[in-house]
Structures are given as structure tokens and as C-alpha cells.
């Protein structure tokens, strides 16, 4: 398929695997890229040396294009930026911060920069910062989220009207039909996280993967908005911190309940009761753990089928 996202990243399909903490190592990224999409290594859960090792393992596995996701709020951000430059990474997705901070520096080293936003206002700032593309993510998504709680299908046309940048839609998309709907609304491609959590190559714990495939509608909730909004599976930890928030707990009190390494405990170590389990609403549609390459193939085939069905109306 020839479109702006495929041409920008030199990939076959405009299907991008999100850079999720504790789930997106080199195995998943290489599997998605080898299948024709764009795989992303999620650096948010990695120490600098770990990130370097992940990049090198990816390069040993395939020569296909890939990206590194760099959340700008992390303490080792300068070291992560230095490593992606030193290791010759060609595409970087940034999030959770000001895109002006690192975009020009990365582009000076021949790196394409994509920034994630949750509103059309910030999409304009991404264009002003000179980014090569923008991801708009609705509040259906898992992980860090927007406080505005704007849904993806409301957000896409608003961001499309606000910027001429290549647009990638994210949040609540896990199928070819969802991909077609996003493109009809103005997106050039889609980014999927939740669907790839439940893949063979995902570095998430098997307990977490299995839990994702058994979720029903309403089993996730946008939580911890005073600290940083994240969509979580409802478990003992989520209920405890939500109850504290409902009773008026301060940001500092919520941070104390959250503690350290809560996401690692849940998604990577498999504690389904006390871990922070970040996942999107679309998880209720995910029923099987499959190889990532098979997931990409299914999405693309369903997209083509849905496009033909719509054309016949």
C-alpha cells in the first residue's frame, strides 16, 4: 500500500506497533517489522545499557525499518537520546513532553521524529516543532493517556483539520475494520498497542497476556489522573488507588500508594492483584495470543475485505 506513512517509514503496511513499557522488546518489534509493519522498541522501561542491547539484538535479527519510543518524562532521557543516535536508529517516537526539546537535535542526525498527542491543540505544536508525523491517541488507549478523555474517533478528524502532517491514529484500534474507519476519518495509518500485548513475541508476562484475552467490556478504567492518567485493568491495586482518589487523596498520597516499579510488578512479573496493568479498552475484543506476524496479516486482510465491502455499498 502506497500512502504517506508507508513512504515515510519505508514499510509495506501502515500498521505500527506501539512502544509499550515492559511489552515491546526487540523480539516483538522485529516480528512486526518482518511482517510489513513498523515495530517499535519501547525504551520507557529500559535502562540505557538495556536499550542499547535491545537495538543491537533487533539489528542482528532483521534489516527492516524500526523505531524506538522515547517517553520524554524519564530521568535518563538524555542518555536514551544519545544511544539512539550512536546506534543509528532512523525513527524515533516521542511522547509525554515538549516535542521541541529534542526534535531538531534528532533530525540533525538523520532521524525521523514522530510525537504523540491527545488533542488538536498539541497537534499544532507538534507541527510547529517540525516533527515528521504525529500520533493522535484517544482515551480508549492503555498506558499514559490524555486528561481530556477525547475518544479516538472524535479526535482523528479534529487533528486532521489542525495539521497537514502524516497522521497516525491510536487508541481502541485492533482490527482491519478499525483501521479502515480511522483512515476514512483522516488518518494515514494506525498504531496498535493492546493487540500486540497479546502476541507470542511480547515481553509481557504470560499472566498478563492471558488476562488481556479474558477481559470484558468495562474491565478497564482511566485512573490516577492526578498523577498521570493511565488506563488500567480493574484489580486490587486499581480499586485501592481509585477509592483513595474518590475520597480526595492528594497527588502525593496517590504517589505513595503507587510506589515504585508497580507496572513492572504487573505487566512484566505477572502479579495480577497488586500490579499496575496498563491496557486499552479494545482488550475486550482480543481473545487469542498469536504470533505478531499473523496478527499483522489478519489486520491487513480484514482491512482489504472491509474496504471492498464499503465500496460495494
CATH topology of the largest domain: TIM Barrel
Helix content: 40-55%
Series of H and E elements: HEHEHEHEHEHEEHEHEHHEEHHHH
CATH architecture tag of the largest domain: Alpha-Beta Barrel
Average pLDDT: 95
Number of distinct helices: 14
Physical arrangement of strands within the biggest beta sheet: 1-9-8-6-5-4-3-2
For this structure, what is the CATH class of the largest domain?
A: Alpha Beta
Radius of gyration: 18 Å
**Share in β-strands:** 15-25%
Shape category: globular
Major sheet details? 8 strands, parallel
Task: Give the full name of the CATH homologous superfamily of the largest domain.
Answer: Aldolase class I
N- to C-terminal distance: 23 Å
| Secondary-structure-derived class | alpha/beta
| Total count of strands | 11
Low-confidence blocks of residues: none
- For the record, the count of structural domains works out to 2
